Amino acid sequence: MSGHSKWATIKHKKGAADAKRGKLFAKLIRQVEVAARNGGGDPEMNPTLRTMFQKARDASVPMDTIERAIKRGTGELDGVNYESINYEGYAPNGVAVYVEALTDNRNRTGAEIRSVFSKQGGSLAEPGAVAWQFERTGVVLVDGSVDEDELMLVALDAGASDITRADDLWQVTCDPSSTSALRQAVEAAGMDVRGSDLTMLPSSTVELDSVEAARSVLRLIDALDDHDDVQDVYANAEISDEILGQLGD
Fold first, then answer.
1. Hey, which residues does 162 pair with through a beta bridge?
2. Is the pTM of this model over 0.85?
3. I want to staple 171 with a disulfide (CB 3.0 to 4.6 A). Which of 18, 74, 166, 175 is the partner?
């Protein structure tokens, strides 16, 4: 299994666990608000907003909460003016880490993210140091019981670029602008979609061949994820099923 699909699976499972914590709703609402501010409040005309809207609904964010976030983004309601900023760095064992944040205080957030990297044995790098190792990609996750050939017929016709197996899921990738249309096509075919998102997939990976190495990287990822301003964290780590199982134990 490629590192791409393995890391996407880790992110998906971690997202499900995070949904049990209080911070996920706030982060999703902020993403909806910023998407509306940047591209307008009509999901039909704003592909990023459409994807963020669906992501929030997948996490059971109430509809009226999403609608208020859109109105804050378009200026119909008062709201905080969030700035999008990315951070790049390295986790232990040379793993590249790419962080996406939304903040109302760039200086405060930057200092805090630097501190998180340092405390967890990583280091913050200059802009551009690791971004080239990741590519913005749309991802639709489909139940693994779906027949691969049937999924391929539907997905490729709807703009998919690749289909890979990721544990008990199919990971279908596409151009970011096609994410919503791809999801709709798969659902219209009666297939069970487990989620969809805009993500950053690594072009190459670093294999972590011990439990301690994997734990040290995931500890940094968790610490970054816990920061209120951080929206997403991506890494080019590759962790085997065996080591993941030992981490679970």
1. 173
2. no
3. 166
